[in-house]
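Minimal example, chain plus zinc ion.
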Amino acid sequence: MTTIEYAEILESLAEDDDVELKTTPTAKSFIDSLKVKKVECEKDIPFCVVCQDMMNVGDFLMELPCMHNYHVDCIQSWLATRNTCPVCRFELPTSDLVLGSIEISYLINFKKKLETLITNPF
Ligand SMILES: [Zn+2]
Ligand SMILES: [Zn+2]
């Protein structure tokens, strides 16, 4: 990959408002209070927008107040850097506390996103 391509990827990331550097994490106490459910019925498998994958029977999902469902791990790392639902942008309570792990999960997400863009640019 050339430096120019790399710069273009960074630029496209900067334009994507999901990856704005200045995002507010969701309050941890709020995330802890969210309902966790187990996927039990094969007919009713939700799609997780965060990892762009269907859930499987037996997976644990977390339901936001707007009734959107995600894998527990996916939504937790999502909410560690943002306070909105990935689908409908429903606003969740934020915390003033900035935890060290937030930066780490942000970097992990950033890296994932970058890898996705590199492997499938369109
Ligand atoms: Zn997921
Ligand atoms: Zn939602």
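Residues 60 and 75 are 11 Å apart (CA to CA). Residues 64, 66, 68, 85, 87-88, 90 surround zinc ion (ligand 2) (CB under 6 Å).
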